[in-house]
Each structure stands twice: as structure tokens, then as C-alpha cells.
Amino acid sequence: MSEHNTANTKYFVRLTKNQRIQHAVLFSSTGLLILTGFMLQGERWAIEMFGSAGDTIFWWRSFIHRVAGVAVTLVCFYHLVYVLTTKEGKSWIRDMAPRLSDLTDAYKNVQYMLGLKQERPKLDRFTYIEKLEYFSVWFGMFIVIITGYMMWTEYLWPKFYLDIADAFHLGEATLAALAIIVGHIFSVHYNPHVYPMNRAFIDGNISESLVKEEHRLWYDRDLKSNAEVAGKAVCE
């Protein structure tokens, strides 16, 4: 068992309940979009194996794809409102904002991984990789949502624009599937540091030892903040 998941481990809140719900909706709707979307890329002989049931299967494929598209659109819109209007959301986007220090962190971390440095850099609440992944989701969702609704309302668009939308939609969906399967799921949930799984998306918590190791600046700031609060309480 990982040292980050022992019985006596102290935990930090990584994701609130609201954020975990958003993640669950995004993950499930995106998963359905990928599954039902790539069904269109299947070989014809595989479809013909279903015989007369093929039409029914693909009617449900189309229906589920559109429902999932609406769901992912709504959760993206909700998240935008969330980060712009709520205290919790503003804290999220403030800590997620790119900074020049992210470039130096990336450079220092590469040196550490190559064995050129003895210690890894002290990273904040969100690392440069997490920030890149987060804003990549925004970029990707913007493309697939716009192009998806263009194809849904194909009667409004000339064929030239639909062909472009189709190419961008499939291309971005392929990149998203690879990023989720190869990048996010492995590096976040099946990282050897948190084997067998990072459960933050379920219970919202990560261990103190993992915070120290991967988010040291956040850990130190939290300790300083708690010390200041305790100091004020003593004075009062």
C-alpha cells in the first residue's frame, strides 16, 4: 500500500463536494461522447453484424450523444459562472491562473527528473501540468461544443463549413480521448505515488505526505495561515 494512504495519514481537502460533482458530470458526459462518437468510425461489417437491430442501436447512439453534448455544455457553462461569481470558484481560478513561475517550475522539474538536481521544485496548489491540462479542457470543449452544435443544426450551414466542423470535431475528440486515457487517468489516478488510485475525485482528499511532496508551497502556506489564525485566537 502507498505511504500516502495509510490509516494514520492526515488529509487535506483537494476537491470540495461541488467540484467533485462537476468533475463527475464532466467525466461521465465526456466518456459517453467519446464512446458514442467513435462508434461512427467503426467498420461497416461490424455494424452489419447487428442486422436489423443496427438502426435501433445507432438511433440510441445519436440520442445519447446529443444528451451527453447538452450535459457537457451545461456543466462547462456552470463552471464558468462558478469561477466568476462564487468565493470558492474565484479561489480556484486565482490559483489556477498561469504565472511566470510555472515556466521556471517546469524547467527545474525537468532537471530533477533528469537527475541534474537533487530536489524537486516546490510546487503550489496547482502545478504547471495541472494548469496546462485545465486550460486545455477549456480550449478543447470550446471547439467540440461549437462544431458539435454546427453539425446538429447542419441545415443552417453550407457543406464547406460542415466539412471543416467535422474535421475539427473528430480531431479534437481524438486528442481529448488520448489526453484523458493516457494523460489524466494514468498520471493522476494511477500514478505510482498514489497506487492503487488517487481517490480525490471520490472523497475530495489527498494525504499530507502527498501535499508535502507535490504541492509544498500550498502546504507551507496552509501551515502559515493556520498559525496566524491560532495566534490571533490566543491574543483575543
Give the strand order, joined by hyphens, for the main sheet: 1-2
Shape: elongated
Average residue pLDDT: 86
Helix content range of the residues, please?
over 70%
* Portion in beta strands: under 5%
Total E-strand runs: 2
Largest sheet: 2 strands, antiparallel
Instruction: Please count the helical segments.
Output: 10
* Stretches with pLDDT under 50, minimum 5 residues: 227-235
Q: Which secondary-structure class do the elements indicate?
A: mainly alpha
Distance between the termini: 44 Å
Oligomeric state of the chains present here? single chain
Task: Please give the structural blueprint.
Elements (H helix, E strand, L loop, with lengths): L10 E3 L3 H22 L5 H5 L4 H33 L1 H10 L3 H14 L14 H25 L6 H31 L10 H4 L1 E3 H7 L1 H20 L1
Antiparallel strand pairs: 1-2
Helix pairs in contact: 1-3, 3-4, 3-6, 6-7, 9-10
Give an overview of the whole structure.
This protein has 236 residues and is an all-alpha fold. It is built from ten helices and two strands.
How would you sum up this structure in a few lines?
The protein has 236 residues and is mainly α.
List its traits.
two-stranded antiparallel ribbon; disordered C terminus; mainly alpha
